[in-house]
Amino acid sequence: MTWSIIALCVLVYALQWLIPNDEVYQDFAYATALTEVEPWRMFTSAFLHSQGFFLHIVLNMYTLWIFGRVLEPALGRARYLAVYVISALGGSVGFFLLTPVSMNGVIGASGAIFGLFGALFVVVRQRGGDVTQLVVLIAINAALGFMVQGIAWQAHLGGLIAGGLTTAAIAYAPRGRYQLVLQIGGMVLVVALLVVITLVRMNAVGGSLPTSSDVSSI
Q1: pLDDT confidence of 169, banded at 50, 70, 90?
Q2: Residues in Cβ contact with 51 at an 8 Å cutoff, skipping those fewer than 6 apart
Q3: DSSP class of residue 37?
Q4: What is the mean pLDDT of residues 112-141?
Q5: Which residue has the higher pLDDT, 73 or 142?
Q6: Are 161 and 77 in contact (CB under 8 A)?
Q7: Is 154 helix (H, G, I), strand (E, B) or coil?
Q8: 94 is in which domain, residue-wise?
């Protein structure tokens, strides 16, 4: 799954360059003002990367490869993919919750990758390992979100929490006949929580959200 996700991100990045008029970005980037009318952007934006900063995709894919090599065997393909996708959603929810409503686009796999940070933290703790170095790594990367302009720390935070909660539902489910059911139930609860947070935020901003007829370019 790790290589599949990397391949998909690279393919989408190539399409960003090949398809004219910035169409891929316009159609799939996430903007908080589009949450109600085009909610799928909360997922699709995680597969787009900045064309103006090549290291954006390079660093994200390298980090994905490093963490994926550890987490995919530990969690299993399906669970690993679930953690990644839910973390991507969590990143968008975090950005929606902690930023003003606007048509400014946000893209990148960073929210999902921070979810993998949270996932590895849970896995290592559950197995009794030392998480000191991982905590330092998370802290350094989190700090960059406040120090470097253009980095959405809100998405990092949302992804980190979503990834940690999803993995906790997997790692701490009691062994036995109903383990898989409990794991799936836990993951569903995390998604439900993210949906509820999104709905509450949408209700709070109310008139700031456009209707489908009001949507303009991001």
Answers
A1: very high
A2: 13, 16, 17
A3: T
A4: 91
A5: 73
A6: no
A7: helix
A8: 2-203
Q: Could you tell me how many residues make up the chain?
A: 218
Report the alpha-carbon distance of residue 189 to residue 60 in Å, rounded.
28
The CA-based angle 58-117-39, given to 5 degrees, is: 75
Confidence check: pLDDT of 214 > 60: no
Asked, for residue 83, whether it belongs to a domain, the answer is: yes
99 pLDDT higher than 70: yes
- Is 214 domain-assigned? no
Distance of CA 67 to the CA centre of its chain: 14
pLDDT at residue 213 tops 50: no
Q: Are 136 and 119 in contact (CB under 8 A)?
A: no
Q: State CA 146 to chain mean position distance.
A: 18
Interatomic CA distance for residues 86 and 91, integer angstroms: 9
Nearest to 56 by CA among 115, 12, 110, 14: 110
Q: Specify the amino acid at residue 148.
A: V
150 or 18, greater pLDDT: 18
Tokens standing for 117?
């940070």
> Is residue 150 assigned to a domain?
yes
- The phi-psi region of residue 176 (left if phi > 0; otherwise alpha if psi is between -120 and 50; otherwise beta) is left
192 token code pair: 């439900």
- Residue written as token pair 């949408």: 202
Residue 13 counted as domain residue: yes
* Residue closest to 183 by CA, chosen among 195, 171, 194, 196: 171
CATH of residue 85's domain is 1.20.1540.10
Q: Which two tokens stand for residue 6?
A: 């990397």
- Total domains present in the chain: 1
pTM of the model: 0.91
